[in-house]
Structures are given as C-alpha cells and as structure tokens.
Amino acid sequence: MLLRLLNVEWLKLKNSKIWLIVLASPCLASIIGFFPFFKADLNEWILLSTQMILVHSALFLPLLTGVLGAILCSHEHSHGGWKQLLALPVSRIQVYLAKYIIIMILLLCTQVLFIIFVWLTGMVQGFTSQFPLVSLVLSIAIGWLSCLPLAALQLGLATSLTSFAAPSVINVMLTLPSILLANSKILGPLYPWSHPMLGMTQMFSASLGGGAGFLADVSSFYITLILSLLIFLTTGTLYFYKKQWR
Q1: Euclidean distance between CA atoms 56 and 68, whole angstroms
Q2: Which residues contact 29 (CB under 8 A, 6 or more apart)?
Q3: What is d(CA 17, CA 8) in angstroms, rounded to the nearest whole number?
Q4: 233 pLDDT exceeds 90?
Q5: How far, CA to CA in Å, does 36 sit from each of 40, 44, 154?
Q6: From the DSSP assignment, how many helices (H) and strands (E) are in the chain?
Q7: What is the DSSP letter of 182?
Q8: Is 181 helix (H, G, I), strand (E, B) or coil?
Q9: pLDDT grade, residue 62 (50/70/90)?
C-alpha cells in the first residue's frame, strides 16, 4: 500500500512545476558562485564550494524543505481533499509517511543537482584544478540527513495549517535566524533550521582535513538529529492519525 501511495504522490507532481522549485536552490547558489566573497590562499574549487554550500545550506535548503511540505499538502487542503483521500481503504500513517518520503526524495534530487551546478559553475569560470567530488558527496549526504528532522517538522506544520501561505511564512521567519544561531555552540545544534548548514559545512571541512565547521561537538549534533527526528516524526504522525478531517 505504501508503494501505491508513493506512486499516487508522484502522479500528482508529474504535471506540476515542482521540479523548477527543486532546481531553484542549486541555480541560485550557482549564480552567487560567480561573485566570490571569499579571499584566501586556497584551492579555487574549495573557495567556490564553500561559498555555494553556505548559501545553499543556510538559506535555500531550509526554505525548500518547507515549500515542498506545503506543496504536497496543498492539494488535499483544497476542496476537502483530506476527507476524500482518507475515506479510501488506506492507512493514515502510510499516507503521512508517503508524503514525508517524497519530500526527502525531492531533497535528495536537489542535493545531487547541487554538486552538478558546483561543477558547472567552476567549469564556466575556467577552473583547472582537481574537482573535490568526494568532499562534496560527503557534504551533500550529511546535508540531506540533516534535513530529516526539519522535513518532519515542516510536514507537521503543513498538515496542521490549511493554507499554503501560513507554513511558508513561518518557515521563512524561522530560517532567517538560522545563520546567527549556527554560530552558537549551544543553540545551533538544537535549532532544526540550522542543521543543514552545520552538517554540510562541518563535513566538507572535515573531509578536506580542516576544522572550519561551526560544530564544537559532532557527536552531540548527530544525537540531536536522531532524537529530533524521532520526536518530530512521531508527533506529526500521531497528530495526523488522530485529527478529524473536514
């Protein structure tokens, strides 16, 4: 049944413009990559990658996570769609998990496209040194994992708020402080909107043998990710399961 629900969600997205949204963050980060604001005696690819990772993970990726959640629930919020869907012989928990899985698949597509756009941006600028593929793959992988709790939280908001605008506005308001809070050793790892930035920058730096990330305690960060994922996903699923839809 879960596979059928996943297929249904894909069919809903087939003729939508959501793929333009998936492309948005890599494209915008790529544009910013043509205007370097770092000046250091480092490999050209490292400077470009660092700049693009920062803007992608700190701003665009958290915003995208919320937008995807709102879009996937907007169809059901319209014209009593939830009631019609849940009247079918489907499990509420599987419906909720299907939407969550689709969000994570779309975010994975964004992460893969991000690497491609980093490479394209460097090629256009005429970079000739070795492309840090392994470091970027590790960085986007951790960035994707760091989005797991945030996606669960955003999906919970999207299902509980009936309009598309409300969860999107909340997401924007809570994303903007993430850059400042990421610098806090205590608040940064506890703030879900900072998780993608903390994860991607730390892994990219560590894979290159450096320590330029924002995390003071990597182990505590991953424990926080796991616990927050369990809390947000369980809470959202239980709310969705018990809610009386109209």
Answers
A1: 16
A2: 52, 55, 56, 60, 114, 117, 118
A3: 17
A4: yes
A5: 11, 10, 32
A6: 11, 0
A7: T
A8: helix
A9: very high
Domain ranges of the chain: 2-242
Of 86-100, 194-208, 230-244, the one with minimum mean pLDDT is 86-100
Handedness of CA 168, 148, 104, 245 (dihedral sign): negative
> Could you give the C-alpha distances from 99 to 5, 152, 179, in angstroms and in order?
9, 10, 28
pLDDT band of 65, cuts 50, 70, 90: very high
DSSP label of 177: T
Burial group, residue 148, by CB count within 10 angstroms (0-12, 13-18, 19+): buried
Tokens standing for residue 57: 């993970």
Return the DSSP state at 69: H
Residues 106-138 as b/e (b if ≥16 CB within 10 A, e otherwise) read bbeebbebbbebbbebbeeeebeeeebeebbeb
What tokens appear for 116 in the block? Answer: 């491609």
| Cβ-based burial of 219 (10 A; exposed 0-12, middle 13-18, buried ≥19) | exposed
Grade residue 213 by pLDDT with cuts at 50, 70 and 90: low
Question: Which DSSP letter does residue 183 get?
Answer: T
Q: Which tokens in the block code for residue 188?
A: 């940064």
Q: Which position has the token pair 């505590």?
A: 220
**What does the alpha-carbon distance between residue 166 and residue 72 come to, in Å, rounded to a whole number?**
14
**Which amino acid is located at 163 in the chain?**
S
Which of 2, 9, 60, 4 has its CA nearest to residue 31?
60
